[in-house]
């Protein structure tokens, strides 16, 4: 924290007293003013809206090049790069109508462009979309994106899977920093509550150039909620009820923004009982509880902006041992996990005349405990502390060329305080340096970059006595170096057709669990043994995407081939240790390939009608020809949505019906079982309405309408033939004052 305060002092010292302002008028193509248009700067974390005459203004804007995003429902999003070397700048902006979803600035990519301008195709899902789906957890909602799924343990724990890759191959960013919460364990969730999240961006494929080791398979970039607009105060309340788990999620928030300062705070509590399967029985001890607190302080003036965020999350997760005692209680039984996450981040921009420096600093503290008997101390007690940094310098733009250079790294310690050890005390140090450039001409864009990384892992020797047997954790001192690179090209084949081709390399150093495990993992019901001789994973992927967009129809086709050297996976040895099957980590070269295809029809003049269809497939094989484990089944999702006529008080009303067809998965590994296909029908409807300046948003979602019995191929409870969740009705209401 002392470092953060020193940095704030330095940034304040270099600021000047000049006062810049930006004002303007926004109209449609008929020159009619537009009321309520949102104008927002992601760099300043600052926004405003137009008045009834279409006018807006920003005051006390820093010197330099500022990004502005202008968005309005039913119109094309516009991005403006504004030079604020003059004290006052006036803009006249005309918005064009567009029936499709609003184009958005993508934060996860290096140059923060609109999605339509990016070389990489990045999927984006808003928090409002997640709510409409009625998802119980954040990852469950993300699994609705084509190419994304989850490895689940009951209804509480889910780990993201992108195109067949999971675990440490998918890197998660939140609050602008890397999330480190013992995600190397297969039975761990993210520890991030969806309340206080504005959107999630998904990069499919290697992103090691941007993020280093562990981004071999892709990135989930979680954007925190925005502050209130300048000189406004907001109070928000949200409540959701889940019929299947008899669960409730309640969240309260307050926001206050001035011209320079911004504040927000949010508290959330979730509590659920055991989830029910279609025959009416409940899966014992899949209940869970969660308390979440998020806060933020932002400041922007003259030559810099800064945003400090803090998130505390405590999750208590039951560890199921099957279907036994039937209860609707929400009090946890033993065994259960208690996980505390502390995430603090400081996100800064320093503006120069024609360039910019980004400084992101982060601290995460994760404490994981497992309780095996009531009243006893935690048998497992692990603390993971991580300091991270990420600095990027954006050079002055030369013609159509943009260039940036950065350094990135972390220092991490893992310590044990309980009687049980799954992994030993360890220290991890990462360091990376990279540069990337972007060149645009006409309708074409070329982007390329190179990066070098080093990871050092050292562990201590430990001896643990369990059931009169001595388990030894031998010390290791491993170092992994790697160069990665990427090149991408975007062009317009025709006026409305975009072609994207990306070639990228990635790498991943083995994690602590893979190198050093020696114990029972209760969440996965197996005894895991690490392999200190594992080599780093390296991959090469080619990704091709073609997308067509017109006023009333759009379609896309994505294809990829991913070649991985030294692919690490866990496999059974056939032995039994402490009453559980023994699994160990092995390596073999592998290939994954597949893609997604879909369309969105919005026929004229039936502007209220939307028909969407998405199909996704992925195949993963070892070099020997054996299928890889934990590869999701092919799926096909069709959604029919109608939007109703707006009135003065009621807006954005909708109703949708979605059919998800999941095909049988027979391409399973030798120690897996095949999985039958199934169909799930989901319904949802809702809308916004206003009463005396208080804005309400309500929705109802019914998932698995026909109470279908099914088992997802990526469910960790599949081995015990435990079915996934039965019908679930989710009621939600948001209040914004």
CATH architecture: Beta Barrel
Say what the CATH topology is.
Maltoporin, Chain A
Helix content: under 10%
CATH superfamily: TonB-dependent receptor, beta-barrel domain
Described by the principal axes of the CA atoms, the overall outline is globular
- Global mean pLDDT: 87
Poorly predicted runs are 1-5, 7-18
When the domains are counted, the total is: 1
Name of the level-1 CATH class? Mainly Beta
N-end to C-end Cα span: 34 Å
Number of helices: 5
Determine the structural class based on helices, strands and strand pairing: mainly beta
What features would you describe in this structure?
There is one protein chain. The chain is mainly beta and 737 residues long. It has a single domain (148-152, 185-736), classed as TonB-dependent receptor, beta-barrel domain (Maltoporin, Chain A), CATH 2.40.170.20. The protein is 5% helix and 57% strand. The strands form 6 sheets. It has a 22-stranded antiparallel β-barrel. A 5-stranded mixed sheet has the order 8-13-14-11-12. The longest helix is centred in the N-terminal third of the chain and has 13 residues, at 2-14. Residues 1-5 and 7-18 have low confidence and may be disordered.
At a glance:
With 737 residues, the chain is mainly beta.
Main features:
22-stranded antiparallel beta barrel, 5-stranded mixed beta sheet, 737 residues, mainly beta, Maltoporin, Chain A, 5 helices, 40 strands, disordered N terminus
